[in-house]
Each structure stands twice: as structure tokens, then as C-alpha cells.
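Self-study notes.
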Amino acid sequence: MFSNVLSANKFEDSDYLAHINTPNVVRDMDIIRSLLRYQTINYLGYSYGTVLGTMYAATFPDHVGNMALDGKYHIINRHAKE
């Protein structure tokens, strides 16, 4: 499914794809918060949004308002190398 999108949009460059990851998305979320001039964000996360919300709260704890996470992930083990 995504291979068609990537091919159609010429995003096959591995340098570009290497930057699409959870830590970068979390930083992007905080940049958006800052650009909107919010002191904190309120967040509702489902599925992978649970991972993003958990990592956002861990990375930027002073920027979290209300947060509801609907998912069950083992964040530490999820990204660990076996």
C-alpha cells in the first residue's frame, strides 16, 4: 500500500525516509505547539498515538496539559533491538 504512495511521490530517497520516526514526530508535535503559542497541549491518542503521547510526555513533561491514551504498548521494549 505505502510503496505505491512512496513511488508516486518520489519519496524513495533513503535519507528522507531515515528521518521519519517516532522521536522526530514527537519533536514536530512540540514545534506545532510552540508555533500555535500554546503553553501546553491536550492530547487524545489511539493505537500508535499512544506511543506518540507517551514519548511526548516523557520528552516534554512541562508541555503536557490533559492527556488520554487508549492503547496498550510496552514502550521500552517496543523499540529495543533484540
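Second protein, same conventions, sequence then structure:
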Amino acid sequence: MELLLWRWSTAFQCASALMMAVFFVVLARSVRRAELQPWVVAWLSNLVALVVPIILWFFRPQSLLVSVAMRWSYLLSKTAWVMLLVVGAEAFVGGRPARPGVICSSRYSPIRLWPRLS
């Protein structure tokens, strides 16, 4: 019963993330502001991250390699979601579009972002 509730909870979170992703895709296309692009990619990566546990629970991969790959894809997608939300917020508040490759710069490393998030 508990696993069934987790599945339903994750499915509803996925539906919510899908609505947010569609909203930001439509908003970015209608407004055409470069500052919204990191948020569009962020919500799409959150959608990917929420689809991973649904796939894991419904298909139950037996291979250790597939299981590890899915866990890493969840972790990396959620990390990308947080990083892109921060980049999009800073670009939106600063009034300038985010540069390509800005995530890889040392300014946005997780160690340097920690004081900003707390």
C-alpha cells in the first residue's frame, strides 16, 4: 500500500511538473525574453527527473547498470533543475540574459552557491 501511495504521489508531482514545463515553454515563446530560457530548461529537467522514479517503479529494471544509470540521471536532472533555476532568477533580476555555458563557470559551482541558497 505504501509503495502505491509513493507511485501516485510521484505521478501527481510529474503532472504538476508537466504543467509548469508547458507553462514556461508557452511563456518563453510568447514573451521571447532570453532570461526565461534557463527556467524552461530547468522545468523540463525537473520533468525528466520525476519521470525516472516512475519508470523505475513501474518497469523494475533488473540490471544493475540500468538501475545505477537511472539513479544518476535522477540526481543530475534534479541538480540541473536547481542550478538552472538559480541562473534564471539571477538573469531575470539582473536584467541580462544568461550566457551559454554559464553553469560550468566557477561562479555557479555548488560550493559557491551554498551561501546564496541558505
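Instructor comment on the second fold: The helical segments are 2-31, 37-59, 64-94, 110-117.
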